[in-house]
Design goal:
single chain, 83% helix
């Protein structure tokens, strides 16, 4: 089937600043929409009190597992689709999206069922007190229903990025999240649903986004049947991304669990700053999305020089953008926590970890950019190894030592610092080596 009239033009492989910005800026809106909505949700729920805020922190951490699966699908699909698009085979690139969507639907339904059945036990393990655990379980039982839509949207983002179409994802994701951002305060306060209203707004955004991406895929092709051989190939690539993602999940789940042991105010402050960190991370990932698409297309076309040029440019862009984020965060240290909570104890705990947040952002910007380069190049085995080692030797020992010696949130965020700096050093070394530059349709 021929592509629709508004399909993107064939790939341009000149890594100019304008070309990178043309892919990165729409991706920035897409990446920022979900964490921005989470920040709105956190601010709305935070004014209900410390326990509801802590409940969203716990439930949201569990739901981040679904977001992690979505990231795996989006990133794996982008790299594979981009190589085929760069080689001139747009039909094969779209086929990657079809098979990724089948995986997304199956995984999303499974995660929804697991969330419904396991909400109580999971939140009891993570929460520091029974009241918080009960509130978090109620929120999670509803929010889990959004998992299928969330994963379908991730698969849709993946194949569209691969064919260098960042315009349609922008409108789909932005529309769904704006609707949900309007619904959230209405359902929580005037409708009187409290935490339940927050969960319903989450499900609405995720389900609507997934449905719109699925409709876009049907418009592109009628070849919608599952193809086991392609799914298996995607799963093989996804294995290393899965292990890498598991290291992230172990770190952040452990960090939330340890923060909860320091009290309700501590876990509330941790939730606020961690969501700001995630917001900055995903916003900075905009240049990484451009890198995935352009590096994959360049290597698929056999142009290793262009791939290296993209890597150089996005690394610089990532570092500069992160410095700007850090400056804004430093300027807002005395103001921003008040947007999310009126509790002085929460503000006091946030002040403990704010310097860590500001200091680590510039290093994180370079790390996220290089993650995009290596995912686009298919060098995910190296990313897996570096992430696992940084977690095992840095993040996890530090946060559990913080718990054992009662070091508070400062110890938790020192672990995040070790995790970030370990990856920074390793990825900079890899960037300067020739090992990640492998041309051709497959790696």
């Amino acid at each position: 089937m021929s592509p629709p009239a508004d399909a993107p033009a064939p790939p341009q492989r000149t890594a100019t600043a304008r070309r990178i910005a043309g892919l990165a800026l729409p991706a920035l809106v897409v990446l920022a929409a979900e964490p921005l909505y989470v920040l709105v949700d956190t601010a709305v729920v935070g004014h209900l009190g410390a326990v509801p805020l802590a409940a969203v922190a716990i439930g949201g951490t569990v739901m981040s597992v679904a977001a992690w699966f979505g990231t795996l699908m989006a990133y794996g699909t982008t790299g594979r689709a981009a190589r085929r698009f760069g080689a001139g085979d747009r039909t094969a690139a779209i086929a990657e999206g079809v098979q990724a969507s089948w995986m997304a639907l199956a995984a999303g339904v499974l995660l929804a069922l697991l969330g419904l059945a396991g909400a109580g036990p999971l939140t009891s393990v993570l929460a520091g007190d029974p009241e918080t655990a009960e509130a978090a379980a109620g929120w999670l039982r509803i929010a889990a229903l959004g998992a299928p839509g969330l994963l379908l949207a991730a698969a849709g983002n993946g194949w569209m990025r691969g064919v260098q179409d960042t315009r349609r994802p922008l409108w789909i994701v932005l529309g769904a999240n704006v609707l949900s951002a309007i619904l959230c305060p209405v359902l929580v306060y005037p409708a009187g649903l409290g935490l339940t209203g927050s969960a319903i707004a989450n499900v609405t955004a995720q389900s609507l986004g997934g449905a719109l991406f699925l409709a876009a895929l049907v418009r592109e092709t009628r070849a919608l049947r599952p193809v086991p051989s392609i799914i298996v190939s995607q799963l093989v690539l996804g294995r290393d991304l899965l292990i890498r993602g598991a290291a992230f999940q172990a770190c952040f789940l452990s960090a939330t669990a340890v923060a909860a042991r320091f009290g309700v105010a501590a876990v509330g402050a941790h939730q606020i700053v961690l969501q700001l960190w995630f917001f900055a991370a995903l916003a900075l990932d905009a240049v990484a999305i451009a890198a995935q698409s352009l590096v994959g297309a360049s290597l698929g076309a056999g142009d290793d020089r262009e791939a290296r040029d993209v890597a150089r440019r996005v690394t610089l862009a990532g570092g500069v953008s992160a410095l700007a984020f850090a400056a804004l965060a430093a300027a807002g240290a005395a103001v921003v926590p008040g947007w999310f909570s009126d509790d002085p104890a929460v503000h006091e705990q946030a002040a403990v970890i704010w310097p860590w947040f500001v200091a680590l952002l510039p290093f994180a910007g370079v790390v996220y950019a290089l993650d995009g380069v290596f995912i686009g190049a298919g060098d995910v085995a190296f990313l897996r190894t570096v992430t696992v080692l940084s977690a095992l030797l840095g993040f996890l020992p530090a946060i559990w030592l913080a718990y054992a010696f009662d070091l508070g949130l400062g110890g938790v965020w020192a672990g995040l610092g070790l995790f970030t700096l370990g990856r920074f050093v390793s990825l900079m070394w890899r960037w300067r080596s020739p090992y990640w530059v492998v041309t051709g349709v497959t790696r």
